[in-house]
Amino acid sequence: MPGKRTDVISWDEFFMRVALAASLRSKDPNTQVGACIADANHRILSVGYNGTPTGINDDEFPWKTVNDPLFDKHSYVIHAEANAILNYRGSLKDLDHATVYVTLFPCHECAKTLVQAGIGEVVYLGDKYEGTQDNLISKRILGTCGVSYRQVTLSDL
Fold this sequence. Notes:
About 25% of the residues lie in helices and about 15% in strands. It contains 4 helices and 5 strands. It has helices spanning about 10-25, 80-85, 110-115, 135-145; strands spanning about 35-40, 45-50, 100-105, 120-125, 150. It is globular, with a radius of gyration of 16 Å.
């Protein structure tokens, strides 16, 4: 009997590719972010991307960054990590020690949400805002709360 195939993709690559696929659903013209939450048994628990809340027609709301919060996209968009948590329909205890694969390092609001949901690890592809105040706050929140984080690159995948 022939041996099994050995050139399969890693779990990191598999889940990050799911997150990348989710990011393709985002209608944000500047930054498309996807997230995939997986448990310790390598099961996908949930997926999310950055977009407007259900019930908001995203054709009628702004997709620009402007100084007026009433017309700024950030006032209306839910981030991919938060959407992945909100999209999960199982028991929140299942998220305990799960891993979130996200195409962009989480902002500080998402870091708080991930910690509160019980996520144990953040695996991210890009760190576009590395070194900014928000990024440093995110890393402090995750580190203080014992949530590990690591970056993977496309060449790793």
